[in-house]
């Protein structure tokens, strides 16, 4: 079993690599009593703690030809920050677990950590622990993020009559990934779409602002796709839902890219995953001050549907007032990417 | 790229598998405000929080021919509980991240979760989150454990004059692994040694009892090997150390197994990793009540050396009063298993 990563890494050794990496990211900060270098980190929380983990596996969640190490580092942390944001939490600490195949170069790991550091600094997250392992398989980075919140929001609080809202725009990451996979596609807005795929923006500030309104009833991040995540929220809330296709905030250039690609834009706007926007429900009174909240959140807010009694079902209102069932069309790491 | 796990798993899908697994382990308990099923878990800590993560990769940390899925489940959680124990913490919550290759069967995942549940129930740990991914590489399970403690111990508090102690016995896991790899070796105590490798016992109760004495100054778990971990503790404490080879608590049958195998027992007792005992330092007054503390901890305590001024170095006192340097001879996932 040959397991040693590339020679530069192998000569550093496990402890040498950890020693190198700890200097590339923020490792101390408020609340960190003991950080990297002991058996475990010791941390202080001043409110309820929020915990999530998410893995990025080469060949499943990304490929090196379409994702630079710096982008992967940003992305691997950002997808976890998005989960904290979806609970209306503030991210605080992260643990980073790496599985490195033999061919891994030091440049790859340094690049990953540069992107990781950029996201950690941008969102005031401290890396407090982790581990490094060899693997005979693909490169993988598994991150746990710990945050805290004093007014957390779950998926399970939506009531009939609440409006459905979303931050930012939908379908951009799926469109960006398509453009990367089909570099011949003519798309003037391609750069922004590709950036949305490579460098998702976790809506941390928005999550806080929305919870502070006291009018938001449920929230989820759109990692699996707009349709799929509204379905998750409605199921958790034991409610029905209507999604208004015409209201979806479609980013500039997405429809043109879809035409150039011969694709239905709804495959991206309804079905495309990895946007990492916040999909949330709010009492009707929210709408009157939505413009103000959007400014405070630093991101547009768009009303895209309504929560219904459970008996009225979950469906999409499309062109010509045609109803179609709301279907989970997001990512399934076992099935959709086979 | 074929990424779908075995047909039974593929037909369950990612969400179906998660739904199945959550019923196999404890998922609710004190302090869990929101558990599995939302974007993140929401948890309460009543003291300082302690966080650690550790991965088990097939071919690096275990092989299926020597480790049953049930054992892997126990082991993957136990090695993390040991890190919490080494900080004198109480484990509370765990997040479990799985990377499943295409050939994974439902029986393997169910077995893993049976062992995981056994350890979770034994140590009152609640599984509060995680994720499941496909992989083109080896099976991997990465676990983050969160605990808490009101009197945490680090590696960095040892003073010259403190005695060095260890719980339980040393070298048993390495001996057990050797016996598994060389099934022809004659070893009457083989079963206990093999069990020590497959089902390490995290010394959670011992960590608490030791911290409560107020006399323990530093602690680490012996995951890398007795010599290596004493070196880590001495380095973190900026101190020297003497390890008395004759005092090491060698388990029954280890020396006979070493003779039968034609091996030097010190390769296991000094260099063998994965024992997951607590190696700690204590003020001289500890010794007078050590027998009582051992009873409360539920595990023997053995004095194995002394902390010295840093200038006196770090060394092993062997037969015939010969001194040899204390060397890191434990596991390095990049180098020692290449």
Q: Can you offer a commentary on this structure?
A:
2 copies of one chain form a homodimer. The two termini of chain A are 27 Å apart. The first copy, chain A, folds into 2 domains: 143 residues, PurM-like, N-terminal domain (60s Ribosomal Protein L30, Chain: A, 2-Layer Sandwich); 163 residues, Phosphoribosyl-aminoimidazole Synthetase, Chain A, domain 2. The model of chain A has no long low-confidence stretch (mean pLDDT 93). In chain A, strand 12 and strand 13 form a beta hairpin. The longest helix of chain A is centred in the first third of the chain and has 18 residues. The radius of gyration of chain A is 21 Å and the shape is globular. Chain A has a 7-stranded mixed sheet with strand order 8-10-7-11-9-12-13, sandwiched between helices. Chain A has a 4-stranded mixed sheet with strand order 3-6-4-5. Chain A is built from 10 helices and 13 strands. Chain A is an alpha+beta fold. The interface between A and B is large, with 78 and 78 residues. Strand 2 of chain A pairs antiparallel with strand 3 of chain B.
Short description:
Two copies of one chain form a homodimer. Chain A contains ten helices and 13 strands.
Poorly predicted runs of chain A are none
Beta-strand content estimate of chain A: 15-25%
How do the SSEs of chain A run, as a string of H and E? HEEEHEHEEEHHHEHEHHEHEEE
Name the strands of the widest sheet of chain A in spatial order. Answer: 8-10-7-11-9-12-13
Strands of chain A, count: 13
Task: Figure out the total of helices of chain A.
Answer: 10
Domains of chain A, number: 2
Helix content of chain A: 25-40%
Biggest sheet overview of chain A: 7 strands, mixed
Query: Which architecture of the largest domain in chain A would the CATH scheme give at its second level?
Result: Alpha-Beta Complex
The overall pLDDT of chain A, averaged over residues, is 93
What is the H level of CATH, i.e. the homologous superfamily of the largest domain in chain A? Answer: PurM-like C-terminal domain
């Amino acid at each position: 079993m040959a397991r040693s990563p590339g020679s530069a890494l192998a000569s550093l050794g496990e402890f040498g690599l950890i020693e190198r990496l700890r200097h590339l990211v923020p490792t101390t900060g408020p609340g960190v009593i003991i950080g990297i270098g002991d058996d475990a980190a010791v941390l202080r929380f001043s409110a309820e703690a929020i915990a999530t983990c998410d893995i990025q596996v080469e060949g499943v969640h990304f490929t090196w030809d379409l994702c630079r190490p710096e982008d992967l580092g940003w992305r691997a942390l950002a997808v976890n920050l998005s989960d904290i944001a979806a609970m209306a939490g503030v991210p605080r600490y992260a643990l980073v677990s790496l599985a490195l195949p033999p061919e891994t170069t030091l440049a790859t790991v340094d690049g990953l950590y540069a992107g990781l550091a950029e996201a950690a600094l941008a969102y005031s997250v401290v890396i407090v622990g982790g581990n490094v392992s060899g693997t005979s398989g693909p490169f993988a980075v598994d991150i746990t993020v710990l945050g805290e919140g004093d007014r957390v929001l779950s998926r399970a609080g939506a009531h009939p009559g609440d409006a459905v809202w979303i931050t930012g725009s939908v379908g951009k990451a799926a469109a960006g990934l398509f453009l990367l996979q089909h570099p011949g596609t003519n798309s003037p807005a391609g750069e922004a779409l590709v950036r949305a795929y490579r460098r998702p923006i976790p809506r941390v500030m928005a999550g806080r602002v929305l919870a502070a309104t006291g009018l938001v009833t449920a929230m989820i991040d759109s990692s699996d796709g707009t349709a799929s995540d509204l379905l998750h929220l409605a199921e958790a809330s034991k409610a029905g839902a209507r999604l208004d296709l015409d209201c979806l905030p479609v980013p500039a250039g997405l429809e043109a890219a879809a035409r150039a690609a011969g694709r239905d834009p709804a495959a991206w706007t309804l079905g495309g995953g990895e946007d990492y926007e916040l999909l949330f429900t709010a009492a009707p009174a929210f709408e009157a001050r939505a413009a103000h909240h959007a400014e405070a959140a630093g991101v547009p807010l768009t009303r895209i549907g309504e929560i219904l009694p459970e008996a009225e079902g979950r469906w999409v209102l499309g062109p010509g007032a045609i109803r179609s069932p709301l279907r989970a069309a997001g990512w399934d790491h076992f099935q959709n990417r086979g």
